[in-house]
Design goal:
globular; 35% helix; 8-stranded mixed beta sheet
Amino acid sequence: MALVALAHGRIALCRAGTILRLPAEDGGGEEACRQALRRCFGHAEGEIRLLGVVPATDARPAVEVWLARRLRRDLTAAPPGELQWFAPDDVVARVGSPVLREPTTLAALAVAARSELVPEWSAAPLQRRGRGDSASDGEDGSRVTLSELRVPALPARALEADRPAPEQLINAHLSSLEFNARVLALAEESGTPLLARLRFLSIVSTNLDQFFMVEVGALKHRVAAGIGERSPDGLTPPEELDAIAIRLHALVARQYRCFHDLARGELSAHGIRVRDWDELGPDERGALDRRFAEEIAPLLTPKALTRAPGHPFPHCGDRRLSLAVVLRDEPGGPQHFAVVELPASVPRLQCSPGAIVPLEALVRAGLAALFPGREVVAAHAFRVTRAGDIQLDELATASFLQAVSEQVQRRPWGPVVRLEVEQTMPPALRELLQRELRFEESGMQSALGPSDVYEAPGLLDLSALSELATRAGPAGGTGGTGGGAARSGLDYAELTARDPFAGARSVSGVLDHGDVLVHHPYDSFEASFERFIAEAAEDPDVAAIKLTLYRPGGPSRIGELLRRAAAAGKDVSVFVELKARFDEQLNIGWAQSLEAAGIHVVTGLATLKTHAKIALVIRRAGGGGRTRRYAHIGSGNYNAETARAYSDLGLLTADAAIGDDLHRLFNELTGSSRPPQAQFRRLLVAPTDMLDRFLALIAREADHAHAGRGGRIRAKLNGLADVTVIRALYRAAQAGAIVDLIVRGICMLRPGVPGLSERIRVVSVLGRFLEHGRIYHFANGGEPEYYIGSADWRPRNLRRRVEVITPVRDPSAMARLDRLLEDELADPAAWTLASDGSYSRQLP
């Protein structure tokens, strides 16, 4: 058994050196719990409850998890047996790190994290005492201990960068959750404009949806299939799932605290009120009743939850909000159950004068019309999330388009990996849903466990807040959020993008004299890349246009320009990546519409995704049949919508060597189904040579540092998770190189560890725009080199995708990249990554 002892809002953990774990005892039952109390606290007195039982596995027997409160012991006395007391929020921040990853402790804490008997787990962080306040010795000791454990004391073997050691790395999944915690912090900050705070809350929910669909779905599949391979940082799949659950329950509770604070505070102050049905007056209800009867009720289909013949358990749509309805045929009779799925075509938040009303409130109030002659006892909202990664046999399929299309159609039938319920849903109804959903997926070798149930204290699925941010005007009405909202302070000030080709007769004419670096959204996408393609489509001297599309979005001007170019007789070739996750259906539409216009379309390479953002224009230059090539290589999708919301970089160039490299690459993409095999002079191309060339550049900085020439590496990227690159950075730092990294999201590198990475600093910059650009700088002994492109230092980018990184040699462009790196490294609002995987920042 494992013991969760709580007192004064703190939890007791045993410390052995730098390792923390819960008190545990062999055996089970109340007597084993009392024995653990006697051993840890010197007595067996206290209020104890059984929280739950962790099922047995091949590697571990079943574990009872007991809760102990009202302990008699004087907690200010020196604790026996290295027992110390920690605030739950500090424990959450360290779950999965080298100090807190003992398997039984993780499993037991996952039980505590979801239990309503342990409200401390989801409560607000304890308020730290001021200097004048008294504090117990036990509390002070715990605080000092946690400070000491921020820098893990790694074993000597883990300090050798050439020897793989799990302690060198941070868990990728937990790092992803840390990223979402930073996004949530933007929503919590009073200095963030109100409508942006709503968008950040919505983004957290959308990100967590995808996290469950992809990462949790993959982990559950491994558990069900008996795949016990450890993560690079040393956790088994069950241990990762436990650590994720512990952190996520606390994160979701924090997200809802933020929303409730906003609803009571700023939203209400601006006349934006999210109200339930019982808060509405008769006139307001009447108008909504009519809307329900005329617009919503015809779209609803009640489905019985019964084992009666002819009534299978209804399929619950992926991420579709539903109501679980409790019914009686007559007063006092037995209860029956039904499900009503809310229509996705109807806005989730319904506007009425002076109020925003959730759609589920309208449907709940009108359920009597769907169940005539029956008593509606209650109705509770719930939502399921299903595993969303598609399984594609790429080597066996004859048509990528058909195979991807078929797999996308199967996605809504994937195994359930999460169940979200309203906090008011009674336990019996929760258990019914879990049991039926487990039965539904029993043939798919997956299981929905108690830790996969997340309760919402209020509006379920906060991604709907993006609707509110879009509709809420400066006076709290239902207008747009354009300039009026910005002027009123409800949203960010409008950004006027720069035209990098202002006054120029043509883009190609400018590029004939030098390269142009563009930084979106500060540089206009429409006035740069779109203009580049538009001029190529109209120019009679242009012979060919080639480009890649990864996430082009919906219909756009780029598609119109490509079709126009093909209609004018130009050779147009487009590589549309059908395997761009969750954009597959949109990309299938692009491929079909471009093919219908006579454009040569390639839809994929077996076993690889083409993630490179590249375009090539071939133009006749004067007489004699000579041609000149113009290229764009960037980090962002060719998508005008995301170009206004994402921060991305692109290089427009007529450099002959870059054009030659890019032409070779396009020839391979359109002329072969195998990964690129050509030799490239300037470009770094994955999976061909990018990894080896990056490793060589890092090693060169290590050599410069070792020789006293001051090696330095700076990089800005989305994610850092390739273990080979991480160890190369460790070697460079050990040789004396300074490594400064700006990593927006996942980072598995552990900075600041004495003897391993004390010369490595990692910061994360988040804000109004999604930081999506990649920059790599190598000081090279005073002859600096800069690179930009589409690839992060992650295994998928370096090994499983076609990616392109280009050198930037124009002096003004290099200076601009240098300023961008220095500004972000010095940003006072940036988060700094600590050695234990947690983030902090020092705001003024």
